[in-house]
Specification:
Blueprint (H helix, E strand, L loop, with lengths): L7 H9 L2 H4 L6 H39 L4 H23 L5 H4 L2 H18 L2 H7 L2 H23 L4 H22 L14 H16 L4 H22 L29
């Protein structure tokens, strides 16, 4: 999704070394073919996660726009802003212009079409069915994890320091949702729902830059942090784990998120 570089697995190989540099002299053709096949499979999986995450993000933006009674233009804008907003912020902070979706508009088109289709699908009950089986939430978690790591890698390639790359990775993963909520005149969801969302993104981004510095296999560097972010999100959703939610009621900080997916009570 993010950037003028074609695919994240080769991008990470650029950060440290090419895959051929890691092969031992005398490696068999069978072993090399297996490595090539693994890379191809992971590349396909990356594409699937990118599109799944973009679709999930677009649906969340479209549903919020519908709740706010926006017109069709508002629905499309809200759906697109979640998918490309974080990457746009990242590119602007890095001075990378034009931003990624200007050169590669595929994902913004997917987000726009998804946003347009989301309303009739919701009326037909398809969105509710997906939510019942947590398909949208899981797609959101997988997409966010992928976008965090690809954004951190783009920052590395632009010359950012490890900590800066981690921060820009988080911005790439959650920035679109923050812009969406601000446009809807709401407190950004990542700052108030108590779940491990931005926290999961930052943990994964830090793990990614640490693995890059350790010069491990590029595929491990890429997929291990994604798995960690996804795992933290799933545990947060299924177990109701999260950060404390501060409340002035009773004069003390209170952890009010008791059930997965439930929003904390706000002062009335």
């Amino acid at each position: 999704m993010f950037g003028r570089v074609v695919r994240a697995i080769p991008r990470i190989e650029i950060v440290r070394a090419t895959r051929d540099d890691h092969r031992m002299p005398g490696s068999s053709l069978i072993a090399q073919a297996a490595a090539d096949g693994t890379t191809e499979v992971l590349g396909v999986l990356q594409d699937v996660l990118e599109y799944a995450g973009t679709i999930a993000f677009a649906i969340s933006g479209a549903m919020l726009a519908a709740r706010k009674r926006m017109d069709i233009a508002g629905v499309v804008v809200m759906g697109c802003i979640v998918g490309v907003g974080g990457g746009t912020l990242r590119d602007l902070l890095l001075g990378e212009v034009p931003v990624f979706w200007v050169a590669s508009p595929t994902f913004i088109l997917v987000a726009a079409l998804t946003a347009i289709a989301a309303i009739p699908l919701h009326r037909a009950g398809m969105i509710q069915w997906s939510e019942r089986y947590n398909l949208i939430v899981l797609s959101d978690a997988a997409g966010m994890a992928l976008f965090v790591i690809t954004s951190a890698n783009v920052a590395f390639l632009a010359g950012a320091s490890p900590i800066s790359a981690a921060i820009l990775g988080v911005i790439g993963g959650v920035g679109g949702g923050i812009i969406r909520d601000l446009l809807a005149n709401e407190v950004p969801d990542v700052l108030r729902n108590g779940e491990y969302y931005a926290t999961a993104a930052f943990v994964g981004a830090l793990l990614y830059v640490a693995l890059v510095e350790l010069d491990l296999d590029p595929r491990a560097v890429f997929w291990i942090p994604i798995a960690v972010i996804f795992g933290i999100r799933v545990l947060s959703i299924s177990r109701g784990w999260g950060v404390p939610v501060l409340s002035l009621e009773g004069g003390r900080a209170d952890r009010t998120l008791d059930h997965p997916g439930e929003e904390p009570d706000r002062p009335r």
